[in-house]
Structure formats: structure tokens, C-alpha cells
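Lab notes, practical 5.
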Amino acid sequence: MTELIITNNEAEKRFETAVNGEIAYLEYMPAGQNIVLSHTEVPEALEGQGIGSQLVKEVLETVKRNDQKIIITCPFVAGYIKRHREYLDLVFGYKGQ
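Output from the prediction step:
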């Protein structure tokens, strides 16, 4: 799997990466100190290559570095966090167990 270059396109409010001329992205909305992760889009030509997962992971790492919390409305992000519980502490309101 190739290392992706992921950028924050603040004008479009999305983190994105270009692969073979296609753009995969994760849309967000600022929410005070937090960030709402609202929609992940991976073009059909790029599906099944782990690009969506790499995108989500890098966004979560960015959130962690920025000392933010996330609010999830995107099912793909929710599924990723369910499989990668080490990111649960980034979820706004999560108290740990």
C-alpha cells in the first residue's frame, strides 16, 4: 500500500488525497474546539485499496496532535473507530472504560 499525501483543503472543509487522478476525501465541520467528521468519499476506482482507512487514520492522528475531539456523523469513520478502539478517546463525550 502506498503512503498517501493527505492535505487539509480548508476552503472545501475536507481532508483529501489524490490517487491516480481521483480524489478521496473526508468532509468535516469545525465545532468550536472540536471537529465534526461528516462524510467520507472514495471514488469507485479506488475502492478496496484501504485508501478510506488511511485517510481516516491520518485525520484522527491530526485531531490527536491538535488536541481536539471528534463528533462522528459519518458511518465509515464510526466503523473505523469501532475496529480501532485506540481512537475512542478522541470521541467527544467518551469517558473511557
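Observations recorded by the TA: Residues 89 and 96 are 7 Å apart (CA to CA). The first strand starts at residue 7 and ends at 9.
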